[in-house]
Design goal:
By secondary structure, the protein is an alpha/beta fold. The protein folds into two domains: 5-148 and 293-385, 3-Layer(aba) Sandwich (Rossmann fold), CATH 3.40.50; 151-290 and 388-408, Response regulator (Rossmann fold), CATH 3.40.50. 42% of the residues lie in helices and 17% in strands. The protein contains 15 helices and 13 strands. It has helices at residues 5-20, 49-68, 91-100, 113-124, 151-165, 184-199, 222-225, 239-248, 261-264, 266-273, 275-278, 295-307, 312-318, 320-343, 350-357, and strands at 34-42, 75-83, 105-108, 128-130, 144-146, 175-181, 205-212, 231-233, 254-257, 282-285, 386-393, 398-401, 407-408. Strands 6, 7, 8, 9, 10, 11, 12 and 13 form an eight-stranded mixed sheet that branches. A five-stranded parallel sheet has the order 2-1-3-4-5. Helix 4 (113-124) links the parallel strand 3 and strand 4. Helix 5 packs parallel to helix 6 (184-199). The longest helix is centred in the C-terminal third of the chain and has 24 residues, at 320-343.
Length: 412
């Protein structure tokens, strides 16, 4: 069936206009109920929006779900949204804007948001729940709590899994390369890939990293520098155009994405270059996909049935962002719930969230089969200690998990 991410984008334009005009989604505060405002800084109209819009839907629906079911007694959640357009220069203005609107907690989506906003959050003691993750927010530990783990943390685990489970020419070393926009996340992944190749010279060869200016969609001579690679790493939005350019020149490789970006852009990528071009692409994620049988995926489907029955097909087709967003938002909302239970709704502030976060670990029926050590401490600022390897499968026209369960991160 042919789907289009553009339908999702078009259906959201009115909500974007409302957001940028500063109107929140809540009603007047009810008597005896404390409103807690969630400031959202995200990409609603920039290059990340084909995936990120559905993550915004997840936030809206989780707020409705918690409010309507009274899951945090005495509290009504409200959203204040800022469109950063995937533009780093709009991060600080966005932070100041949602803070000025009374945000008690700030939720960010783009990996680069956390490092930019960390100094402000640490200064103002406003907790940031980052639904993606970036290593630059880990040390020193502060007020940015990453609800997943970062792409560069995935690389070594993914490379090891490929050598042991995917590479089909024993006795030879697979050649790895990397392509992407010139940004700090690519450089962090590059460092990790080079480190793994240096530490395991008998297992893998690292060929090169090629980059184009941030925002570019044109690939030229860079493609030729990676033509002999067996595996090529790429991240998110620019990945599809690189795959297209690489294959048009007659080259062949398995593409890998350690950032969950490929899965998040599933619908956009397939509409752009087709299933055959993407077949076999590997992506490592810190959340299950729609094709996985887990209670969290069941909850995501329930939310769509309840709040977006007319959009359900398009949202699922878009990719990981909605179900992955639900996955990571549960951590955020449960930390908030724990904080309220500890101090009371009327006494809630950023410090209460911080104190609950550093003590949070997984538990409960939603996370059967997960690892109870997932969580934060006084010094640990990423939530998830494992990953899943998933694959684009053209025959099934789906993304399927191919690793044997969760794989522990290799961090050294």
């Amino acid at each position: 069936m042919n789907h289009s991410w553009r339908k999702v984008l078009a259906s959201f334009l009115v909500l974007v206009l409302i957001a940028v005009l500063g109107m929140s989604c809540g009603d007047d505060e009810e008597e005896g109920v404390v409103t807690i405002r969630l400031g959202e800084i995200t990409d609603l109209t920039g290059p990340g929006s084909p995936a990120v819009i559905t993550l915004h839907y997840a936030l809206e629906d989780m707020v409705k779900y918690y409010n309507e079911n009274g899951l945090i007694p005495g509290v009504k959640l409200d959203i204040i949204s800022w469109d950063n357009k995937y533009d780093p220069s709009r991060e600080i203005p966005g932070y100041e804007w949602v803070k000025g609107k009374g945000a008690d907690i700030i939720i960010v989506v783009i990996p680069s948001s956390g490092p930019v906003l960390k100094p402000s959050a640490d200064r103002d003691k406003i907790p940031i729940a980052s639904l993606s993750a970036h290593r630059d927010t880990f040390d020193p530990p502060g007020w940015v709590f990453n609800m997943s783990n970062s792409a560069d943390m995935h690389v070594k685990t993914l490379m090891k899994w490929i050598v042991e489970n995917h590479w089909e020419d024993p006795g030879t070393r697979p050649k790895f390369g990397l392509a992407g926009w010139d940004e700090n996340m690519i450089r962090a992944i590059e460092d990790a890939m080079e480190e793994y190749s240096q530490d395991h010279p008998d297992e893998v060869d690292y060929v090169d990293t090629v980059v184009v200016p941030f925002g570019s969609q044109t690939w030229g001579g860079e493609v030729e520098r990676l033509k002999d690679c067996d595996y090529i790493g790429a991240i998110g939005f620019p990945m599809a155009k690189f795959i297209e350019a690489f294959q048009l020149r007659g080259h062949d490789a398995t593409f890998i994405d350690p950032s969950a970006g490929a899965a998040s852009y599933r619908g956009f990528f397939v509409d752009l270059i087709g299933w055959e071009a993407l077949d076999g692409t590997l992506t490592s994620n810190s959340a299950p996909f729609w094709s996985d049988d887990t209670p969290v995926i069941d909850l995501a489907r329930e939310l769509l049935d309840t709040y977006r029955p007319g959009q359900k097909e398009e949202v699922i087709w878009a990719g990981l962002a909605y179900c992955g967003g639900v996955h990571n938002l549960i951590y955020t909302f449960e930390i908030l719930k724990n904080a309220i239970e500890e101090v009371g709704a009327e006494n809630f502030d950023g410090q209460a969230f911080y104190d609950a976060a550093v003590e949070y670990t997984l538990g409960g029926p939603l996370f059967e089969g997960y690892y109870p050590e997932w969580g934060f401490t006084e010094t640990k600022r990423y939530m998830v200690d494992h990953l899943l390897v998933q694959e684009f499968n053209a025959e099934a026209e789906d993304i399927v998990t191919v690793s044997d369960g969760w794989l522990p991160l290799i961090l050294d």
